[in-house]
Amino acid sequence: MQFDITNTESSALYKLLTGTVIPRPIGWISTIDANGINNLAPFSFFNVVSEDPPHVMFSTVRTGNKNKDTLNNILDNKQFVVNLVTEEVVEQMNTTSQSVASDIDEFELAGVTPINAVYIKPKRVKESLVHFECEMVHHYFIENHQNGGACIIIGKIITMHIDDSILMENHRINLDKYKPVARLAGSNYSKLGEIFSIKRQ
């Protein structure tokens, strides 16, 4: 079946896209507002986009033409932390996906521990095994939307924190100990399944 974008409702497009572009890594983004209130929310429209120098991207939807707190905070101070999600913290991550008032600290809501970053103000999630401290270098609001669209954030990684427990020789990551979680569609998530290798040509 062919789905012409202009004749397909946005709710259907969302289901088709999130059901086919899988699995997606989850960027658990922590920010801080002007009053020092922590914000923490997961985004699965997320990935690394460069290693020279290291950059990541994520996008946040603007349902009803309203910015999420994450976006407002980053536009205000241009700083955020990417905390990566593992099996051990997936329930806490899910707790932070709910919409709450901007004066609610999602670290407290989810029962996770805020720890200081080295170079920026937003806190890191202590229970996460990987943190990227980032500075926004670019943002772009998607045009011609019907319900608010989305904003893409590009962030430069200033420093990376990787737990010693998942590091192996030559900077490789021990996937058996890392246990990352990926986003599927609806309420579905996935763990790493069978891993196979193909040599590059």
UniProtKB/TrEMBL annotation:
Keyword Secreted: no
InterPro entries: Flavin_Rdtase-like_dom (IPR002563), Split_barrel_FMN-bd (IPR012349)
Flavin reductase like domain span: 19-176
Domain of life: Bacteria
Pfam families per UniProt: Flavin_Reduct
Family listed: Belongs to the flavoredoxin family.
PANTHER family cross-referenced by the UniProt entry: FLAVIN REDUCTASE LIKE DOMAIN-CONTAINING PROTEIN, FLAVOPROTEIN OXYGENASE
Protein name: Flavin reductase family protein
Species: Flavobacterium lacisediminis
